[in-house]
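dumping the sequnces here before i forget
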Amino acid sequence: MMSTPIEMITDENELQSAGFYWRERDGVRALICAPLERDGFANAFSTRLGGVSPMPEQALNLAGFNEDDAENIYENRRRFLKLFDDDWLLTGCWQVHGIDVRVVHSAAEAQSKPGVLGDDEYCDALVSDTPNVLLAIKTADCVPVLIGDHVTRSFAAVHAGWRGTSSSIVKLAIAKLQREFRARAEDMRAAIGPAANACCYEVGTEVISVFKERFPPANKLFTATREGHARIDLHQANRDQLIEAGISSDHIHIAPFCTMDRNDLFFSYRREKQKHGRVGRLMSVIGTR
Ligand SMILES: [Zn+2]
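..and the predicted 3d for all of it:
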């Protein structure tokens, strides 16, 4: 698997028409959203390839200190950051499936404690306009969303699992960009990364009822499976919310990957938790110079 050429593991045409391409350096591979990059935003959605973690092997696990050695994670982060040419300050948060949006006003704020990536801050979305800061969101099936506004050069990274999506967290991040940086939705572009998709992600009545209560047309997000269960389309739900917030549909790019189907490329909590007990974390990052 590790030596499989990139063109063998994905349909290049499909990838390109979705607005993405692969970047590889020293065996580390990531998906880049090309239009977001052309707008001036460094960005990447990591894969599991090219790391040092035994999950099960050569895995690029970028977070989850309770499930992997810290030195593995730091080495993997160094390898991941080599995909970018400049020095970047990586900053994230301790994600709690909540609705708080952290504003990173300066490089000093991005730094927090050395090496801990702002993991002491509890939130599920980050916004900033500070150059050379890479905002990072960690996922393994949840939906990562990156947003950039080319006019104010402000940007956001959002963690949208079913809870975050049901709370319209991408809209909260956009509202924060508008308030903090006077950004306008019509100037924004968004990239939605690999996640557990409608082809695989089955949920039960607790999730279904939350969505039906909060979003009257939520039926279209679900495909019924067995009694009390349905598969949910979180890519579509987040796309709908981005459009409702005012982002043009042709400024929204969805990576054509399901983390549960493409467990060879991505970590999947739902596929691996039972099997291995431990699951690696992907990282989605955005920043500007
Ligand atoms: Zn799938």
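The pocket of zinc ion is lined by residues 197, 199-200, 258, 260-261 (CB under 6 Å).
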